[in-house]
Amino acid sequence: MINIIPKPYNLIDYEKRIRVNGFNYDCPNELGLGLEIFKEEFNNGDLRVVVVYKKYSNDDAYSLKVTKKEIIIEAGNAKAVFYATRSLKQLIETKKDYYYIQCCEIFDKPQMLYRSFSLDEVRHFYGKEEVKKILDILGLLKIKYFHWHLSDDQGFRINLKKYPKLKEIGSRREKTQIINDFGNCFDETPYEFCYEEEEITEIIEYAKKRFINVTPEFDMPGHTASLVASYPFLHCHNKQIPVYTRVFRNADIICPSKESTYEFLDGFFAEIMRIFKDSEYIHLGGDEVFTNVWETCPHCQAKMKELKTNNPHDLQGYFSNRFVQMLAKYNKKLIMWHDGVKDDTNPSVIQQYWIWQMDKVGIGRINEGRPTIYSPCSQMYFDSAYAELPLKRTYGRGIKLDGLTKKGRANIFGMECCSWNEYIRDKDFLEFMIFPRIHAFAESCWTYNKNLDYKNFRLRLKYHYQILDTMGIGYCKEHLLDNDHNEDYVSPVFRRYNRYIEYNQN
After folding, report:
1. What is the pLDDT of residues 249-278, one digit of tens each?
2. How far apart are CA 107 and CA 92, in angstroms?
């Protein structure tokens, strides 16, 4: 059986295997980068790997043919060559000093060009070695983007030399809320972690070798307690606040109406763009903005009068558009969570649809032409208990939005799965929550619907457990993957505790 995940577009199994001692290569220089990781993974030897330039209309498409005489890869760029080697790697079994390879012929292309995984390292921090392990799996599964959530109310996770208080103050919280989402249960231990710039650069380069582009997120204007704690002049009332310890509902956010805010952010993002100079996208957040402090701010009241509005939420549209102007010089594509996108938000801003409910306004914007990434929490948020989000739903639900038109569907150009880690306390727990969900997600956004087959996917998944074992990566065991609660509404108590019960039973 051929165990490739994600399942290729077209595959012919020759139903025979060959034994070789290694590989040698014939490849045009401009495509050679696509072979570098494969060369590191396997020995030199007798079987020739021939790479041929062939332009496909789909930028990620490739063909792969494995025979006893040679392996032929056809691709239009180094990234597609790399994708071909990820499929080839999954055809190879290593035994002692030999490689056994399944002979076959593949033509492959993805359904979605934007395929992304998001990791929250603010609420809990896992470090560069864990991130690299995740990137290895993202590369194997042909996931193209790594969305890295690096600032929020509960901490700031980069030591920017120009802004030292972001480490001195913003990277540290006094305690951490645990287990229950809205209660008063805390780990009283101070929590302090921060990446050095050199570590960030190392991870970016590691991702680049696997043809993964890093999308950093700095959520604004809400979710900004770590910024405001570090630099109180960003607050409407110049208020000194602590880095937030609770998970939700921080109203002490940055002021969208003071020029000093934009002067700071212009310098701040100059540093961010210097570090993330190769990122195609920058994520600006924009979600869950509570405007209480804006309603009492004289600067905001004056700005609202200038904008001829009585609604403080209109200040967010003003803030977002100032951002678009500010960041235009960096030539990046900007993403915001869909509840932060307003009617007057610059049309170039991409919305990321995340809520489980049917947001008619957000869906309307998709139908009207707003480019959109699809990542509803009911399907793609991997911090959920498996009984709340079984593997089969991540795999097979597809794009499901009431009122979405055929034209609107064409405006959804990508999908993203997310791990929000308010309660995922260590790397072992993280791996349990995200693996093998990432495998299901990868197939759901790469493989065309006509080729999706959940039972067949589960059979192929058994081979991938062996890969995870070899890499020292944990995962959820099979008996928990589809332990569906079978209710449309999952109670907060169930949601709150069941992930811990499952983890302890794993």
Report:
1. 788 999 999 999 999 999 999 999 999 999
2. 18
